Amino acid sequence: MIKLIATDIDGTILAPASDFTEGVVTCISRLQDMGVKVVLVTGRMNKAALLIRDELGLMTPVVSYQGGLINDGGEVLYERYLSEAQAKNIIDWAKQEKIHINLYNDDTLYSEIDDEEVQRYSRAQHIDYVVKSFDEIRLDKVNKILAIDYYDAERIDRYEKELPKIFSDLYIIKSTPNFLEFSNPEGSKYCAVRFLQNYWGIKENETLTIGDQNNDIALLQAGGIKVAMGNATEELQQVADYITDTVYNDGFVAAVEEFVFSVN
Fold this sequence. Notes:
Number of strands: 14
Mean pLDDT: 96
Helix content: 25-40%
CATH architecture of the largest domain: 3-Layer(aba) Sandwich
Shape: globular
Radius of gyration: 18 Å
Strand order of the largest sheet: 8-7-6-9-11-10
Strand content: 15-25%
Order of helices and strands: EHEHEEEHEEHEEHEEHEHEHEH
CATH superfamily of the largest domain: HAD superfamily/HAD-like
CATH topology of the largest domain: Rossmann fold
Structural class: alpha/beta
Low-confidence stretches: none
Number of domains: 2
Number of helices: 9
């Protein structure tokens, strides 16, 4: 019996530039009434993820920053930062490559330049940001760093393949075709879900994990039932046990019907 559903947000339960469908909202409400724990597991910053949790009426902890932070109503259950040296190495690399980066320190979003990338990102996430030189920031609580290129997805693909060889001490993963994430190796979705399974005494075979992007490979690996969205990347679909419908057709709801509602 499924006791925990760990789900990605964007592209999984929320389509781009859309609101939550009535089907998703009703499904999540029904799951909560059944006592199934529904946990949002996202690359979003904590502030942005909390907005989603509140909108859906969830009472569970939120996993943000790819798994680098688990926050339960203000109480930090799990947290993994980049070291100052790691952060500086990424900043230096980004300057050399002339690519925009968002830096998240203590759940505040910083950008050195008020450019199109951070403006477009903040509008989509409904969050504020601070423009400040990274040299002026005390890099003691860096949740993650995000590289953005909205116009050259092939560049992000190339970096995802090349950079783990250069930064072997980091967790580097593509979260959308235009986003490349840098975080602590213990700040993955896999590590966060494993923590919650142990925290609640829930087994792997009692966990359903579902997502759509390469950063959800780690998420799916923590589940007993591994579900990829119909709009998922080819890499994620290869890891999945089951491929559901797309986010545009309530694929999340279809998977829950298949593996939870029909058997409980």
